[in-house]
Amino acid sequence: MAGPQGRLLSWLHSLKHFFLMDQGDMLVHLLEQPELHGTPSGLPAHRLQSLLDSALRSSSVAASPHVDVVGEGVLGAVMDKRSILQLVMAATHNMETAAGQADGPLFDRDKKSSFSSCLEMLLLTVKLSWPLTLVVSKRQLLHYQVIFKHLLSLKWAERDLGQLWQVIRSTKRLDKEDQARFRSWHLLCSQLLYVVSEVLRFTTIDVLEPLWGDMEGQLGRAVNMDEVISLHGAFLSAALERALLTESKVVRHVSVLLSAAHELAKEADALAADSDTGTGSNAGQQQQKDPQAVDQKKMMSMFCRDDNRQDGLMRLQNKVDQVLMELVRDLDMHYQHLLTVTTPAAGAGAGATGVVGLTGQVAGFSVGGSGVKSLLGDSSRDLASLHNLIQRLQWGQRMNSSSRQQLQRGLPTAY
Predict the structure, then answer these.
(1) What is the end-to-end Cα distance of the chain in Å, rounded?
(2) Which of 75, 314, 336, 374 is the most buried (most CB within 10 A)?
(3) Distance in angstroms (rounded) separating the CA atoms of residues 362 and 311
(4) In the predicted model, is pLDDT for residue 352 greater than 80?
């Protein structure tokens, strides 16, 4: 597609690569930067930009035609203290209030929060020039940043849990008594990894990709700039809504589960350090394995026999069970609400009613036009995806409880 419309689509594809991580490898490279796991105070702005450039050049995003355009499309990184809920408020309500005056119950918890990692504050930004700013305003850029922060948080937790899983697999070499003590670690790690992966799958595969495809198809038939602006705005609003980022209770529950994942990984850091020193994969380490393997086995045995650690693990498991139960309950309530608002009224079409139900909660954004209605009209697909997520999370609830029952009965548990 040539001309201004083709240039616009090219830019939107670049924004998709930058913020929606449709290929995902740039996030992987960012998460592999050790400095981003340190405290924000120890990372200068120029070094942050250097780390971003390094991740960008190492990923498929480097192929974007707009990465090196001087004056526009300059991808940058900033440290932003606002939580994801504050960013959602900034994107969907009055920007000045949300960005600078964090008042009300929504922000009570955030005032007391402290940041132990740069990744908690990391946001991408991009410089655009006219006429692109007509389609991608500052508020709409915030929509992209909200989605990016959500995806980054999920991928970060998934990475930490994946690394933890690799570490605790080495406990198979312990005796049966110590293996039994470690099974609670295996169960909680596998449960959190499953839940985080399902939320990530839902956000990317069930929400972002179908919506993007709908928008792209409609943009090809847009007849004027007003319709293009409306379609793009409707896509971003629907993305926040259907990814459940406008549901504050759901966002809080997911945030607690992600914090639990990091807490579990941090608690097992000592075990990971012992594993690194005693079970290296290269030949040089393997030649010294006898004394080190004995020491490591001893350390792992002491680790799992630490009553304080086991008590802390039990408290964390109870918190995860409670929050996951509340998450499933609130998702089901949201689903039941959508079922009622998408039920066709007398003399009205199901598609039109579905549009009102699925977009009405996105404050501060009005959409219109026949293309927008077509974009947002497939409410059955969204309801099916949400119901599928609820069922999968319900299974995530049961997978740990059933395994614990097996442990109580003395049955073997696969891990």
Answers:
(1) 51
(2) 75
(3) 42
(4) no
